[in-house]
Amino acid sequence: MSLPIWDRRPREEAYLFNPAFCGVVLHEFTKEYVKAKAAPCSLALLFCVLPIALHSKTRFALPGSTLTSLYSWRERNPEVLIGFAERARSLRPVAQEALRFGLDRSVFQLTEEGDLLLGDKPLAVGKKFEEGLSEDARDCIVTARLLGRWFAKAGTTSTIMAVWGIKP
Q1: Digit-coded pLDDT (tens) for 101-154
Q2: Which DSSP string corresponds to the chain?
Q3: Which domain holds residue 145?
Q4: Each residue of 11-66: pLDDT tens digit?
Q5: Domain assignment present for 149
Q6: Residue 91: how many CB atoms within 10 A of its CB?
Q7: Does 3 fall in a domain?
Q8: Rounded distance, CA 79 to CA 4, Å?
Q9: Would you tell me how many other CB atoms lie within 10 Å of the CB of residue 76?
Q10: Residue 151, in any domain of the structure
Q11: In Å, how far are 19, 37, 56, 131 from 96, measured between CA atoms?
């Protein structure tokens, strides 16, 4: 599945799924993951971030901290799996576009093994930037940060994806 060219996208989709915003969401996830794990981030995990962070019902169901085990939280919240696999599948091209956008601008870099690190020009997502966003957009970024720290503590990529009911 590929995305239509910009002038053929519905305005709402173009705003929400633009590669710059989604790139910021993925950047903040990656930054927190790499910092918490002290290791590169599996590229496969990026494809879980947008379907969680951009989906308000899932986002609001998340715990307030990483002290809660991902597995036990998911067991107590089975409803978060409803539609998750389809969202992940439909947002795959959006995540790929955002990743390419970030790679082209050296925001991200790939390791020899195909994992992700921050690039030579990581973003500075500061308070001033966030204040210019809608509350919903800010929530997506805050959620991405939480997911980065949480996934870093949750185990292997395969385990994390299994918890969400998908395969790498």
Answers
A1: 999 999 999 999 999 999 999 888 877 787 888 889 899 999 999 999 999 999
A2: --PPPGGGS-HHHHHHT-HHHHHHHHHHHHHHHHHHHTSPBPHHHHHHHHHHHT-HHHHHHS-SSTTS-HHHHHHH-GGGGTTHHHHHHHHHHHHHHHHHHHHHTTSEEE-TTS-EEE-SS-----HHHHHTS-HHHHHHHHHHHHHHHHHHHS--HHHHHHHTT---
A3: 8-163
A4: 666 667 888 899 999 999 999 999 999 999 999 999 999 999 999 999 999 999 99
A5: yes
A6: 21
A7: no
A8: 31
A9: 12
A10: yes
A11: 9, 23, 21, 27
- Give yes or no for a contact between 160 and 154, defined as CB atoms under 8 angstroms apart: yes
Distance from C-alpha of 99 to C-alpha of 19, rounded to nearest angstrom: 8
Into how many domains does the chain fold?
A: 1
DSSP per-residue letters across 96-110: HHHHHHHHHTTSEEE
d(CA 77, CA 65): 16
Q: Could you tell me which residues are beta bridge partners of residue 145?
A: none
Q: How many CB atoms lie within 10 A of CB 122?
A: 16
Q: Is residue 16 part of a domain?
A: yes
